[in-house]
Amino acid sequence: MNILFIITGSIAVSKCNEILKKLKEIKINVDCIVTNNAKKLISIAKLKKNITGNIYTDISETKKKMLHINLSRKNDLVVVCPATANTIAKFANGYGNNLASTTLLASNKPILLIPAMNTEMWENKINKKNINYLKSIGVEFIGPKIGKLKCGEYGIGRIEETNLIVKYLISKLKLNRRFKSKKCLITAGPTIENIDPVRYLSNYSSGKQGYEIASEFARSGANVILISGPTNLQPPSNVKLIKIKTADEMLNNVIKVNKNIDVAVFSAAVADFKIQKTESHKIRKNKFKTLKLIENVDILRNISMLKTNRPKYVVGFSAETKSIKNGERKLIEKKCNMIVFNKISNNNKVFGLDENKVSIITKDGIRNYAKTTKINCAKYIVDSIYNQIKNK
Predict the structure, then answer these.
(1) Which residues participate in catalysis according to the annotation?
(2) What is the pLDDT of residues 37-96, one digit of tens each?
(3) Using an 8 Å Cβ cutoff, are 309 and 280 in contact?
(4) E strand map for 163-272
C-alpha cells in the first residue's frame, strides 16, 4: 500500500514526522512532496528517516518530466498534511504552479486533506467556500479540531491527533483495495432510438449517477467497464469506456464483455420503446401523424436471468414517480440482488442534477438515504454492494 504525502507550509508540519514514523512502522510505503515553504519549517534529513519512499521538491520535475502525473499513478492515496488555506484555495480553483498543486490536479486517486491554520483563516468565508466545493466533488477532510493553536490563540484550526489520522489513513487504504481484482460492469446514461435522420426518442438521463458509480468502483481497485449512452460527461479515470447509442447496441456490448463479471450495475435509462421502422429520410411535418412503437429489449432482465455467465451480483435501477413497491417488485421479477430506487418528484428531480435521493432494496430490506450529492450516493451504493458480497 502506497501513500503520496504532500507537506505544505503550515507551522503544524512538526506533526508530519510523528505520522510518517507510525506509517513506516506498519510497513506502508510513503513518497513525499515538500513545498518550498514547507522546506523552511521541516528537516529533510529527519523526514528521510521516517519514510521508505522518496522526497520530491519543485526542482525534482526539472529532472523527471511528467513527475506530477507519475507520482499520483503509482500511489493508492494522496494526502495533503498539513493543508494550508493557500493550498486548499489553489486546488479548489484549479491552480497548478508547483509540484504539489499540479500533482493534485493530475491525480486520479482519492485525495484527503488534513488542514491546520488559524481559526480566523479556517472560518473565513472564502476558505469555507473552497472547502465546501472540494467536499462536494468527493475530496475528504480530517479535522481540524478545537484547541490551542501554534500561534498561541485558542479555537478551531488545530491539526487532528496523530493516532486518529493514522487510523483513518489505514482504513482509507483498505477501502481503496476492497474491490481489487474484481471485474465490474456499469451501464449509464440514456439510450436514443432514431425516428429518422434528425429525430429520436430518448429520456432525460444525464448519466451522472452511473459515471460516479463507475468512478467509485475504480477508486476501490476494481477493473471497470462502463457502457454509456450519449452524455456530455468526462469519463472517469481508470475505466474502460464503450460508447453506444441504442438499446440494442447496449445489450450487444454487454453480452460481449459479460465474462466473469463480479458486479454488474445497470444504471442506464434504457428507452422503453423504439420505432417499428426507422425512416432513412426526414419525415415531412405534414406527414408526421403517428409513430408505430415496439417494445425495446430489457437489458437488466436479459442479463439477470441468464442461466450461465450471469454476473455474480446484479444491481438494477428503478426510477418511479409512485410507490417504492414498484422497486420491490422489480427486485423479485427480474431476479436482481439489489435495486437502487429513485422516487422522482418535485423534491427529487434527479435528471441532469448533481444531487440524488436513493433507497437501496435487497432481500434483507430497504435502506433509505437522505438527499445528497451523486458522489455520496455512489459511495452508499458501492458500500452496500461490498457489505453484501464481502463474505461470499
Answers:
(1) 151
(2) 999 999 999 999 999 999 999 988 877 778 998 898 888 899 999 999 999 999 999 999
(3) no
(4) 183-188, 193-196, 199-201, 223-228, 239-243, 263-266
Q: Name the nearest CA neighbour of 101 among 164, 33, 53.
A: 33
Q: What is the pLDDT of residues 103-158, one digit of tens each?
A: 999 998 889 999 999 999 999 999 999 999 999 888 999 999 898 887 788 889 89
> Domain segments of the chain: what residues?
2-175, 183-389
Closest CA to 364 of 388, 330, 383: 388
Is there a common fold for 2-175 and 183-389? yes
Fold of 183-389: Rossmann fold (3.40.50)
Q: Which fold has domain 2-175?
A: Rossmann fold (3.40.50)
> From the CB of residue 23, how many other CB atoms can be counted at a distance below 10 Å?
24
Task: Give Dmax over CA atoms of the chain in angstroms.
Answer: 81
pTM of the model: 0.79
Q: What is the DSSP string of 88-145?
A: HHHHHTT---SHHHHHHHH--S-EEEEE---HHHHH-HHHHHHHHHHHHTT-EE---E
- CA dihedral of 92, 96, 101, 104, whole degrees rounded to 10: 70
